[in-house]
Design goal:
Layout (H helix, E strand, L loop, with lengths): L2 H13 L4 E6 L2 H15 L2 E2 L3 E4 L1 H7 L3 E7 L12 E4 L2 E6 L3 H9 L4 E3 L2 E3 L3 H8 L5 E3 L3 E2 L1 H4 L4 E7 L3 H11 L8 E9 L4
Helix pairs in contact: 2-7
Amino acid sequence: MDRDKIIEQVLEKLGQVKGVGATTLLSSDDRETIRKMEEKADQMTLMGLGRGDNQGVKKVLDMDVLVAFLTDMDYEWPSGPNVILKHKDKKVGEDTEDAERIKEVEKCADSLVIGNIIIYDKEVLMDANSSKEPLVVVLPPKECEPVGCIEGVSDAILASPSPPTDEYLKERICEKNERGSGTFLLGFDFENKS
């Protein structure tokens, strides 16, 4: 199938997902701008917990096609975890939408809950503060199943951009910034690279 037709089908399918608004294909210039913004964001403290590592954005920036899209409050985030906390390459926490799990963890003296973030062992926060190795807030790549099953598409991946990139994408896609709107990046490769 023609690559332009595949892209057209992807944009159409993406537009059918509940909570997805405007979409736009991003250029190589956009990719470089985003790459620089994300490199800066990775050096910043995320959520007051540690430095960032947006693995999702890093992955989609290297894919054949990169699409940005707006979301509203009806958009359902990919199933979690969407945030993983690591210290010295060990997973020490994650986000969850499971209210029951949060209640259980709150009862445990060794653990800590901050919003919907669970830290398995709160001693890790002390270690991270006193060591030269900070906590790392990982934003992993997530599969995009509706797009991944389109003929000719390989590895459809979603990524949640940093706040500066989110603002950049909103400006790229539309003039006004609606309250409650957000952005995601979708990257995918073509099945046949010929």
